[in-house]
């Protein structure tokens, strides 16, 4: 035994008269006892096989209720997702990708510039040492530690609130 027209209408959220119309038109498969096989009828209804040529349902028509309800539900889901994203941004859990790329570029450029400036700063020092390998090594090592200390003090722009990337107040 299947579902009555009223029970099926209640299940899919439409009026029983629209189900009766579609049963009479032969677009819903009816069992010999006049009831509907739930699985078959739901499939026919959702795939559009159960629709008559009455046109698109308008406001207040049975088919429009479920469409409007699903649109309203989709809008609520979208608003909830948007609110979640805004909350994550406010908490600092999400960052702007363009800002992050710019900060990474600025930091990498500073590292490059500091490392490339070592030979220029050391050339006069090494030349003035008279060429002793130990003295030259000590001067280079001292300068490299100086550069590494400067790099360790670097902060990405905006990390300390001033945005200058130096870790110092603006």
Descriptive notes:
Helix 1 (5-12) packs across helix 2 and helix 5 (97-128) packs antiparallel against helix 6 (133-153). With 170 residues, this protein is mainly alpha-helical. It is rod-shaped and about 110 Å long. The protein contains six helices and no strands. The termini are far apart. It has three domains: 5-55, no CATH class; 60-94; 97-153, no CATH class.
Summarize the helices and strands and which ones pair or pack.
Blueprint: H1 5-12, H2 16-25, H3 38-46, H4 62-91, H5 97-128, H6 133-153
Helix pairs in contact: 1-2, 5-6
Summarize the entry for a quick read.
The protein is mainly alpha-helical. It has helices spanning 5-12, 16-25, 38-46, 62-91, 97-128, 133-153.
């Amino acid at each position: 035994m299947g579902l009555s027209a009223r029970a099926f209408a209640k299940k899919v959220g439409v009026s029983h008269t629209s189900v009766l119309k579609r049963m009479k038109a032969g677009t819903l498969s009816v069992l010999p006892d006049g009831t509907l096989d739930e699985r078959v009828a739901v499939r026919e209804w959702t795939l559009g096989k159960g629709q008559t040529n009455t046109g698109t349902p308008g406001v207040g028509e049975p088919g429009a209720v479920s469409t409007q309800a699903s649109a309203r539900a989709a809008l609520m889901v979208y608003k909830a997702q948007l609110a979640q994203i805004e909350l994550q941004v406010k908490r600092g859990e999400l960052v702007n990708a363009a800002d992050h790329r710019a900060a990474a570029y600025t930091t990498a450029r500073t590292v490059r510039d500091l490392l490339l400036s070592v030979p220029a700063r050391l050339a006069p020092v090494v030349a003035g040492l008279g060429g002793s390998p130990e003295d030259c090594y000590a001067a280079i090592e001292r300068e490299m530690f100086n550069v590494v200390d400067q790099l360790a003090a670097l902060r990405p722009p905006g990390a300390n609130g001033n945005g200058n990337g130096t870790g110092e107040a603006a």
